[in-house]
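In this notation, each integer encodes one residue's backbone shape. One such record reads:

___
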Amino acid sequence: MEKRFTISGCSISLGIAGAILLIAAALLCGCTTTQPEQVQPQTPVQTPVQTEPVACAGGAQTGDMVEVDYIGTYDNGTEFDSSYKSGKPFSLILGSGGAIPGFDKALHCMKVNETKKFTLSPEEAYGQYDPAKIVSMPIEFIPAGENATIGDRVTLFDGGQLFQATIADMNATNVTFDLNSPLAGKALTFEVTVRNITPLTVEEKAGTSEKKE
């Protein structure tokens, strides 16, 4: 079960869109000299990169609300995620930055009930693993009595802003957080089936964006 810890006593500047991170927390707390750098998100959801429009004669177009079922696997065939586990399709507005770039691009021009299988490079998904996104903070960042252990996936929050991390190490004085996505540096294969395509008006797109913020 993912834990949530409150960060107090320091100002965090995070450009958050869901799980999108700016690694500024430790820098502003004086815990590291690493410069703030944008981190790729968990996928296929939520990325700040808006994809280039893809022209096609039919099927899903930029700006459409698309609902898809998907299964994500590693190179060795091991499944890492699936929309079937939640029992409902994953939905996004194409070209809005609601999914990793390669996933969004692959859905363009697909039709309802069409199935496609594709593999994304790390650059098309969560990016390469970046050692600079390992940050050390005082152990006090973990509340007293909290049963946190190495390997736990946690959500840190301050002032209503959230960012995800993995506890990479901890001792009597410090806790080390890994702000890389667990999928960073990996090629990912998705098998997707389009369940529904809904063209949205300008007003509907604006309303959907406001609800996500």
